[in-house]
Amino acid sequence: MSTSTGTSTSTGTGTGTGLRVAITGAGLGGLTAAASLHQRGLDVRVYERAATLREQGVGMHVGPNGTRLLRRLGLGPALDRAAVRPEALEVRALHDGSLLTRQEMGAGWQERFRAPYLTVHRGDLHRMLASLVPPERVRTGKELVRYEETVYGVVLHFADGSRDHADVLVGADGVHSVVRGALAGRDEPVYSGNSALRGVVDAADLPHLDPSLMYMYAGPTTRVLLYPVSGGTQFTYVVVTPAPPGADESWTSAGEPADLEAVLAGCDPALGRLAHAAGEVRRWSLHDREPLPNWSTARTTLLGDAAHPMLPHHGQGANQAIEDGVALAICLEEAAPGADGIAAALRRYEGTRRPHTTTVQLGSRTGRPPTKENTMNNNRNNNSNNNRNNVNADSVSWILDNDVEANLNNNNNANNNNLNNNNRNNVNSAA
Ligand SMILES: Cc1cc2nc3c(=O)[nH]c(=O)nc-3n(C[C@H](O)[C@H](O)[C@H](O)COP(=O)(O)OP(=O)(O)OC[C@H]3O[C@@H](n4cnc5c(N)ncnc54)[C@H](O)[C@@H]3O)c2cc1C
């Protein structure tokens, strides 16, 4: 489906192209799915509960596993304009700012992973994805409250009393997903023991920092991440620090500059400037959920945070949502006709995605790939930064190398080869 130039070559002629797909939630995951389904010729509708399309939050990392898919969707030039490709990550001591290690990234990582590692403002990426979906395909002010799935289709019920119908329902409605609740039952958030204070500051207010670099100031339990966004004119900061339980599973609670000052007191004096320059401070209480044992029925499935909310230690929540969106579009485009074809396509999607996202979800608790040992106790309250400071290319290649589109195409080829071999064997045995 893609060329080496990174352009999608989908023809939109797959057998699933007659399907009407409803997506609840116009976040980064829902919009990626919508853009990818639309480009493949499916009849897609997005239902967003907010009155206008917008994205909360600050900056984010988009790994090569995400950027290669975004470029194939056609967002290469827009990313080149708005995002930053950091040249390196410097890990510094929190107490005095001394350099502990430097990981070169930039062109080296781009070559190694066949796509760039970028930092971007979430609002910029959200606008880019929204530009790929025709406005008449997105309905705002539509909060899904419940749905009914039958053998013939799915009926969606909205808070304003209206209804709509679809062949397939995709729950991309975030961590408090209505669709997840109906599909998988109620489950509780798992608190990590940490909260994150975060926001954006003008790069000019932090003249000691180089806007072509990412920084991690690492202490025994607290760490400060700083990375450039908006073409290098701003830095996003994320200060992760232990905090008692009790806060909401929310991204958007208000924090105070005084909270930032208190956490950064006694740290490298250069970080004191951050506390002074910070305007609006948000507090994110770091929760995730246990991985689901399954997330699809015959006509309904989940993606992104609705399917696998994860901690940010690998910077992968949105990247995995992007991978989900593209994988789902491929599986639905290639669905065989009829209800059985839809069910098989959703099984194929979940079978491709769930094992991988489960590994990333569990690995995000510690910042390293999960092993039997470190997932047995789930590391929920592991506040140590020892693993999280290990950010060399090898330690994250299991995530960044993933090309979900190529994997699905390769599986197709392998299946076709098996089919051809079987046919050949049948012919041979018949002879
Ligand atoms: C501070 C911070 C830093 C992060 N850094 C990174 C990073 O560097 N890299 C990365 O990959 N990820 C990062 N993440 C995680 C990432 O942002 C999320 O995993 C990702 O945004 C999830 O996207 P989503 O589309 O699944 O869900 P959401 O973005 O939560 O979108 C869900 C949408 O559904 C809508 N909705 C909800 N309920 C309903 C309903 N009932 N009906 C209709 N619509 C509904 C919501 O209004 C929203 O628009 C970070 C997160 C935070 C908070």
Automatic annotation (TrEMBL):
UniProt entry keywords in alphabetical sequence: FAD, Flavoprotein, Monooxygenase, Oxidoreductase
Entry-linked InterPro entries: FAD-bd (IPR002938), FAD-dep_Monooxygenase_BioMet (IPR050493), FAD/NAD-bd_sf (IPR036188)
Cofactor: FAD
Protein name: NAD(P)-binding protein
Pfam families on file: FAD_binding_3
Residue ranges of every copy of the FAD-binding domain listed in the record: 20-359
Residue ranges, compositional bias (Low complexity): 377-392
PANTHER family, per database record: GERANYLGERANYL DIPHOSPHATE REDUCTASE, MONOOXYGENASE
Region (Disordered): 353-392, 409-431
Native source organism of the sequence: Streptomyces liangshanensis
Molecular-function GO terms, alphabetical: FAD binding; monooxygenase activity
Signal peptide: none
